[in-house]
């Protein structure tokens, strides 16, 4: 909903917060990968996207809490993720520590 915020942590967690109530709604834990440097929500499909120190972009379903997939971007830390909602499934942009921005079409 519009009353949600997400955060990524040094501990490798992604948290979804209910702003209206000021409480944590979801906690996603990656068992590997190091700190989470960037997060975004794809609202149409209720998917959380997170970029981490290990060079992966991970996708979690906000309804079930399940990890949907993890994409290796090439080995460098993912410092930023953004969603371009154009098209039926949109595009994910991942900015790496190597200075490159990679575009993924999650289909």
Question: What's the helix and strand layout?
Answer:
Layout: E1 4-8, E2 13-18, E3 23-29, E4 36-42, E5 47-52, E6 56-61, E7 67-72, E8 78-84, E9 91-96, E10 101-104
Compact overview of the structure:
The protein has 107 residues and is mostly beta strands. It is built from no helices and 10 strands.
Describe the structure.
The chain is an all-beta fold. The chain has no helices and ten strands. The chain has strands spanning 4-8, 13-18, 23-29, 36-42, 47-52, 56-61, 67-72, 78-84, 91-96, 101-104. It has a four-stranded antiparallel beta sheet, with no helix packed on it. It has a three-stranded antiparallel beta sheet with strand order 1-2-3, with no helix packed on it. The mean pLDDT is 87.
């Amino acid at each position: 909903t519009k009353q949600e915020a997400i955060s990524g942590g040094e501990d490798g967690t992604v948290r979804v917060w209910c702003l209206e109530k000021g409480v944590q709604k979801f906690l996603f834990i990656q068992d590997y990968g190091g700190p989470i440097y960037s997060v975004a929500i794809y609202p149409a499909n209720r998917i959380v996207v997170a970029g981490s120190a290990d060079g992966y972009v991970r996708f979690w379903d906000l309804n079930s809490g399940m990890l949907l997939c993890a994409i290796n971007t090439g080995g460098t830390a993912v410092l930023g993720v953004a969603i371009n909602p154009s098209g039926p499934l949109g595009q994910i942009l991942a900015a790496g520590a190597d200075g490159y921005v990679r575009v993924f079409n999650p289909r």
